[in-house]
Amino acid sequence: MTKYDYDLFVIGAGSGGVRAARIAAGYGAKVAIAEEYRVGGTCVIRGCVPKKLFVYASHFAEEFEQAKGFGWKVGKSKFDWHKLLANKDAEIDRLNGIYIKNLKAAGVKIIESRAEFEDAHTLRLIADDSTVTAERILVAPGAAPYVPHNVPGATYSITSNEAFHLEKLPKSIAIIGGGYIAVEFAGIFNGLGVDTHLLYRGGPILRGFDQDLREGVQREMIKKGIDVQTHANVIGIVDHTTHFNVEIADKPDIDVELVMYATGRVPNTDGLCLEKAGVILDGAGAIMVDEYSKTNIDNIYAVGDVTNRAQLTPVAIREGHAFADTVYGGKPVAVDHALIPTAVFSQPEMGTAGLTEEAARKQYGKVDIYKSTFRPMKHTLSGSDEQMMMKLIVDPESDKVLGCHIMGPDAGEMAQLLGISLKMGATKADFDATMAVHPTASEELVTMRTKSEG
Ligand code: NDP
Q1: Is the pTM of this model over 0.90?
Q2: Is 405 a catalytic residue?
């Protein structure tokens, strides 16, 4: 009989925490999970899921336009923001319900409260000011939007959290940042008819991705009507009641109805009192863990965005599952963070697996590049001049495909499958030996024969 209230107490019912709690309970552990907001976490409640629904919504105006080329006469269309919000909320409620049901079915006790450390085995539940003890504690509270408060007027801005609940769709918006969230929301707002400005301090957008794709996505976004300004450092935001004036260093100001910051997310460690348990954080406030997600304190573990390994839902889920397998299932699993395929739901979409050309050149010296830019078949009739791009990076020594990068429709779906091939160590010869699926865009991946650089 354990001397603690629970075998495992999980802080945060997001992707990583929920998975860990369910799997650990499945192995017979007595588990509780505390959540201060809503079960489901960022991904389900105010991240990936509602974002993707908004992306779908934002594509229609373009598609109604493109339908003409296929013989359709589409009547006057009208968009209802409140209807989208209501339908999105209903879907989020449904998913939230499923998460709760699954936790309960696994025997996990859900506690609606914030939890903070008292010591390495004791937590304070803020909702009723009680304490609870556990043999092990898993910290999985995620991350929160970062807004640089040193910029005067930055507090007038919204973040992605608020973007999902706006009372009305603004006529114009300035989005500050050039990463996943800024680029995805620029596409969403632009598609919904908002005059959209993307202000990025560097250039081109999406630092960390392959340069050709970064330039390609930026070019296409500009073609769609987004005012993408690179090397645009916002130095102040002034509230003029009817609008905001955004001051940009060495560039003309812009006036917009709404300003949104999308400048990264910081680990949610503030106020958790981790110091009372002796848990060490890194300089960015992230919890430092080993390959089994264990902190410097033997009975305390952490998974997901709070550890800043890769701020992605599937990574948090994998880490949570591996933790439970390792600690409660007797199967030590160290999560492999190499080669994480990913998608940016920009417009056009981007899907990527493996190394960028820049990273491959750094690591391998000489690499072969196969690149193809073309007009997707749909656009031969749609009237759109949007381009699609595919790029393979190959190690000339081993013939291994080191990276694959796609810009265009369904690039995210392709990235998942390419991730498997690359993880298996596929060579260019394997790609070449694979029969094409015709007519698709992805057949280009197995028919590129001429090196564009090498
Ligand atoms: P990102 O790290 O992707 O991008 C942050 C952006 O903000 C960068 O362009 C960065 O510029 C810029 N920035 C940072 N600090 C400042 C500052 N002080 N002033 C001006 N600009 C600044 O973060 P996001 O917020 O877009 O997304 C957070 C995380 O969420 C991502 O890392 C991603 O892992 C995850 N996510 C994943 C999605 C997906 O899988 N599709 C979708 C959405 C989010 P610079 O490049 O110069 O550093």
Answers
A1: yes
A2: no
Quote the CATH superfamily of domain 342-447.
Answer: FAD/NAD-linked reductase, C-terminal dimerisation domain (3.30.390.30)
Domain with residues 154-263, CATH architecture: 3-Layer(bba) Sandwich (3.50)
Measured distance between the N- and C-terminal CA atoms of the chain, rounded to whole angstroms: 65
Cβ atoms within 10 Å of 414's Cβ, excluding its own:
24
- pLDDT bracket for residue 2 (50, 70, 90): confident
pLDDT in tens, 181-237: 999 999 999 999 999 999 999 999 999 999 999 999 999 999 999 999 999 999 999
On average, the pLDDT of the chain sits at 97
| Equal fold, 6-144+266-327 vs 342-447 | no
Amino acid at 30: K
Would you state the pLDDT for residue 1? 55
| CB-based contacts of 47, cutoff 8 Å, min separation 6 | 41, 160, 313
Q: Which residue has the least CA distance to atom 41 on ligand 1? A: 344
Nearest CA to ligand 1 atom 48: 207
Determine the distance separating the centroid of ligand 1 and the alpha carbon of 24, expressed in angstroms. 32
Residues with CB under 6 A from ligand 1: 148, 176-182, 184, 200-202, 207, 262-265, 311-312, 342-345
Token pair in block for residue 242? 């009817």
Provide mean pLDDT across the span 415-425: 98
Instruction: Report pLDDT for 333.
Output: 97
Look up tokens 């190394």; give the residue.
Answer: 355
6-144+266-327 sits in which CATH class? alpha beta
Q: Which of 218, 311, 337, 350 to mutate to test the pocket of ligand 1 (most atoms within 8 A of CB)?
A: 311
Look at ligand 1, atom 23, and give the residue with the nearest C-alpha.
264
Q: What is the pLDDT of residue 314?
A: 97
